[in-house]
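Check this:
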Amino acid sequence: MDGVSVRVYGKINLALNVEGSDGRGYHRLDTVMASVSCFDDVTVTKRTDGAVVCAFDGRLAPRSNAAAAGRLIAALAGGATGMTIEIKAGIPAGCGLGGSSADAAGVLTAGAALYGLAPGQAELPKLARRIGSDVPYMLQGGWARLTGTGETLRFFEGPRPTEPVLLAYKGKVSTAACFAAFDARGENGSVSDIGLLVETLRAGIWPPPYPFNNALTAAAADLQPSVGVGLALMAGLDAAWMTGSGAGLIGLSGGDARRAAAEKLKAAGFEVRELFLKNIGLCFI
């Protein structure tokens, strides 16, 4: 086997609580995530020169999370192991949809299969945590609650909505800059009862009967004004909130209201897509 391909799906955060930095640049999180239907395709092929070469739609990206994942797999395999990583990108970047983490999870999974590695059940998540807090979640996807700095991850069976959610974005937000802006604000980042949200979702209730919240929203809006503008344009929906560290906005409502909001957002220069929630985040193709 000379090549392996996987499809990795984006995610949205339904709620996100954040504690301030611990002084080492780490923040403790409490969040609920769900996979959505936008995806990247990741293909890895063998090399025998020990090099790890990574490209997104033909553009080299040696400092990406995907390249870092490739180097971890190469080190695990040993010898002159290397790989070429080719990614066809479909997850919008800088929108809080976890594309970079998804790509890293895809490389770990495909790379392990490519070289016939059989890491223990905890091995790939352990490698994934070395790259980023969301990467272990992306190895499986679906419904999950993540707490701490990513060390605690609990998957659960959630609802299966048939209506899409609305994704709107205009511009990007750097994750590092957003957390720095959050720290500068000195705010309390515990804005959601995430335990209650999980109980509601486990009961199959969709949508939950209370607002979704994201503690990073104000910080992201400081960096990217489109966050506040977009949320104002989505005010007529049943729910509207920011995912991740921005700048992606999620809207939830019935078809007519959702379509009306989409038209307003497009007129204001936003990119708009409909996404379906999924119960998996990664699969071989």
Q: What stands out?
A: The two ends are 14 Å apart (CA to CA). The longest strand covers residues 29-47. The chain has two domains: 3-157+280-284, 165-277. The domain at 3-157+280-284 is CATH 3.30.230.10 (Ribosomal Protein S5; domain 2).
